[in-house]
């Protein structure tokens, strides 16, 4: 016989899975928009708003479950982690929106040299792989998969600082490109951080261990 | 205040082996909750701490229980004195058919702890410790039965505290009380836990989580898990504990 709280937990899980799918779409669309100079701001804005609203729904559901069932042990860890992850997903959405806004406001990477586009493309691939890992490990509560983000997160961090060094060396680069690329790289680095936070939450909910993957 | 060190405790009621090789050290000046499904031996365990089980015919106990380093199962133990040191509060409030004052004064009088005005002071102190003084200081001569259920239970706690115990045992002290009275008793348990070693048996898991510093989980007479309450309720070590507290069985 299943417990009454299981119905609520299943609803919460489904909400998180929907958020996961939407965040991946939002980040992919915004990065592609920047790399291919396409205006996707309005579309990503809608997605980001939806993610904020979904995070609110998750928070409401979590509070309802706490008030009605006083969850403990793995139930408590699950809902605590889900609330944090919903926030991380909403942040994914926000950074996706910020990236798409750069295209809208500053003209994006149009004036950039080829190496910058390649660099951002490569970093985006790494960040998107971390986002995918965070979503898949959440779906399956796969702690081993979750731990793998640590290495990529380090690589993203290194790329971030290396990019800044290279930009400083090449001070002649047009200012619009400089600002746009720095902001994009910064937002990608933040997305990578949130992917690591999500994976840390997955490990906590599955094992109770609090591990830092950053 | 006293540490209670239980070593290899076994209790039988005729052929029924209720407690099985149970060892546990209960910390002083803290509240320890004992939880587990019906029939797991919770009540038997706390009744072993003031040797109440032996008043049941057919009971037999082996092992040791040390309170402040003295084994209470030693043949020289004065059981009468032991039960002063280890007070007990039961499921249902059970005041004596006497006045409020006499209920609290009864223990200190028969233990010859004080007389005259000193008794008055003990009654006042005990009722204050039980958070009852302000409510009933003008009704000390009324019958204890004229109090509400929650007040009667706090009176029983005051009665237990009046003889200056070192350990206070509570066997589901809120199970017969409404939510308001339960809230008051729980707050009181937290308060007296700072001064006394309190051991509470409860079926209400949330109550265990709310009031205790440490939690012990018993299953079929064995200690499955013991630890600080936060860890037991957030991240239990044993799968059996996890299943019990999340409602998968019990």
Quick summary:
The complex is a heterodimer of chains A (214) and B (250). Chain A is an all-alpha fold.
Keywords summarizing the entry:
heterodimer; A: 214 residues; mainly alpha; elongated; B: 250 residues; alpha/beta; 6-stranded mixed beta sheet; 4-stranded antiparallel beta sheet; 10 helices; 10 strands; 36% helix; globular
Pick out the low-confidence regions of chain B. Answer: none
Mean pLDDT of chain B: 94
How would you classify the helix and strand content of chain A by structural class? mainly alpha
Global shape of chain B: globular
- Structural class, from helix and strand content of chain B? alpha/beta
* Count of beta strands of chain B: 10
The backbone outline of chain A, from C-alpha atoms, is elongated
Span from first to last CA of chain A? 41 Å
Order of helices and strands of chain B: EEEHEEHEHHHHEHEHEEHH
Strand content of chain B: 25-35%
- Determine Rg of chain B (CA atoms, Å): 18 Å
N to C succession of SSEs of chain A: HHHHHHH
Portion of residues within helices of chain B? 25-40%
Mean pLDDT of chain A: 93
Query: What's the number of extended β-strand segments of chain A?
Result: 0
**Oligomer classification:** heterodimer
Structural commentary:
The complex is a heterodimer of chains A (214) and B (250). Chain A is mostly helical and 214 residues long. Helix content of chain A is 85%, strand content 0%. Chain A contains seven helices and no strands. Chain A has helices spanning 4-35, 41-69, 73-106, 114-140, 143-147, 149-169, 175-207. In chain A, helix 1 (4-35) runs antiparallel to helix 2 (41-69). Chain B is an alpha/beta fold. Chain B is built from ten helices and ten strands. Chain B has helices at residues 42-48, 79-85, 100-110, 117-129, 133-136, 149-162, 179-192, 205-211, 229-234, 239-245; strands spanning 4-13, 16-26, 31-35, 59-67, 70-71, 86-89, 167-171, 197-201, 214-219, 222-228. In chain B, a hairpin with a 2-residue loop joins strand 1 and strand 2. In chain B, helix 3 (100-110) crosses helix 4 (117-129), helix 3 (100-110) runs parallel beside helix 6 (149-162) and helix 4 (117-129) packs across helix 6. Classes of the chains: A mainly alpha (214), B alpha/beta (250). The A-B interface holds A 3, 5, 70-77, 208 and B 205-206, 209, 233-236, 241-242, 245-248.
């Amino acid at each position: 016989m299943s417990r009454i709280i299981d119905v609520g937990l299943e609803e919460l899980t489904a909400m998180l899975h929907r958020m996961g799918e939407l965040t991946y779409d939002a980040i992919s669309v915004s990065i592609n928009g920047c790399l291919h100079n396409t205006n996707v701001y309005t579309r990503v804005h809608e997605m980001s708003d939806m993610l904020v609203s979904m995070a609110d729904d998750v928070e409401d559901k979590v509070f309802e479950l706490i008030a009605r069932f006083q969850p403990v042990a793995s139930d408590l860890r699950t809902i605590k982690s889900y609330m944090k992850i919903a926030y991380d997903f909403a942040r994914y959405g926000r950074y996706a929106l910020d990236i798409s806004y750069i295209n809208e406001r500053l003209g994006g990477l149009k004036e950039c040299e080829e190496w910058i586009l390649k660099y951002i493309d490569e970093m985006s691939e790494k960040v998107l792989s971390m986002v995918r890992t965070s979503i898949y490990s959440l779906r399956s509560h796969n702690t081993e998969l979750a731990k793998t983000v640590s290495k990529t997160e380090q690589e993203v961090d290194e790329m971030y600082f290396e990019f800044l060094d290279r930009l400083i060396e090449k001070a002649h680069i047009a200012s619009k490109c400089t600002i746009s690329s720095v902001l994009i790289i910064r937002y990608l680095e933040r997305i990578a951080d949130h992917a690591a936070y999500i994976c840390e939450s997955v490990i906590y909910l599955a094992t109770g261990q609090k591990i830092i993957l950053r | 205040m006293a540490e209670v060190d239980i070593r290899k405790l076994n209790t039988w009621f005729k052929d029924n082996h209720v407690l099985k090789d149970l060892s546990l050290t209960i910390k002083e000046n803290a509240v320890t909750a004992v939880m587990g499904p019906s029939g797991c031996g919770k009540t038997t365990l706390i009744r072993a701490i003031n040797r109440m089980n032996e008043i049941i015919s057919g009971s037999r106990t082996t092992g040791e229980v040390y309170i402040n380093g003295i084994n209470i199962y030693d043949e020289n133990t004065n059981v009468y004195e032991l039960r002063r040191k280890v007070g007990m509060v039961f499921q249902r409030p059970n005041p004596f058919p006497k006045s409020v004052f006499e209920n609290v004064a009864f223990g200190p009088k028969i233990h010859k702890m004080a007389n005259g005005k000193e008794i008055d002071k003990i009654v006042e102190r005990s009722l204050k410790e039980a958070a009852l003084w302000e409510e009933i200081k003008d009704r000390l001569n009324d019958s204890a039965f004229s109090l509400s259920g929650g007040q009667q239970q706090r009176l029983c706690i005051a009665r237990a505290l009046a003889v200056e115990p070192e350990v206070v045992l509570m066997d589901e002290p809120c199970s017969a009380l409404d939510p308001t009275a339960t809230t008051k008793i729980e707050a009181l348990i937290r308060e007296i836990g700072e001064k006394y070693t309190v051991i509470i048996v409860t079926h209400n898991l949330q109550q265990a989580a709310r009031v205790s510093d440490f939690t012990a989980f018993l299953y079929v007479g064995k200690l499955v898990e013991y630890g600080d309450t936060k860890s037991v309720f957030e991240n239990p070590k044993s799968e059996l504990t996890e299943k019990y507290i999340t409602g998968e069985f019990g």
